[in-house]
Amino acid sequence: MDERSPLARLEEAGARILLLGAGFDSCTAFHLAEYRISAPRVDNSFAVMTSQGRRWSTVRDTSVSSDDFEELGAAFEKERPVVRGRVGGAEVRLFDLAEAVGYAEGWLPGNRPPAATA
């Protein structure tokens, strides 16, 4: 979800986000902003299949959390254009990816505990 990710390529291409029956807590585009701010780094361990079988690998990466994305999205929606509507029984929101990421870059450092952004 960093600068080399498909998400960053979508941002460059001028993509928009359609949340279809989902809230801002599911808006993974905000994770790109976490990579751009001074967020803490953590060790992530996971199993990897190799030609020798399953091996554990650990990488150091940016700590990401969607715990406050609903609050972030609500603030974004108050200040930026978000088209709202319905598709069937689902509530939908449509907005610009780059604008959302840029907003999150400014919002996250001032609204997360210092340990979560340092």
Ordered list of secondary-structure elements with their pairings:
Layout: H1 6-12, E1 16-20, H2 30-36, E2 41-50, E3 53-62, H3 69-79, E4 83-87, E5 90-96, H4 97-111, H5 114-117
Antiparallel strand pairs: 1-5, 2-3, 4-5
Helix pairs in contact: 2-4
Written account of the structure:
With 118 residues, the protein is of the alpha+beta class. The strands form 2 sheets. The chain has a 3-stranded antiparallel sheet. Strands 2-3 form a two-stranded antiparallel sheet. The protein has helices at 6-12, 30-36, 69-79, 97-111, 114-117, and strands at residues 16-20, 41-50, 53-62, 83-87, 90-96. Helix 2 packs across helix 4. 37% of the residues lie in helices and 31% in strands. The two termini are 19 Å apart. The chain has 5 helices and 5 strands, in the order H-E-H-E-E-H-E-E-H-H.
Portion in strands? 25-35%
What composes the largest sheet? 3 strands, antiparallel
Q: What would you report as the Rg, rounded to the nearest angstrom?
A: 16 Å
Shape: globular
Could you name the ranges where pLDDT drops below 50 across 5 or more consecutive residues? none
Output the structural class: alpha+beta
Tally of DSSP helical segments: 5
End-to-end C-alpha gap:
19 Å
| Portion of residues within helices | 25-40%
Average pLDDT confidence is 92
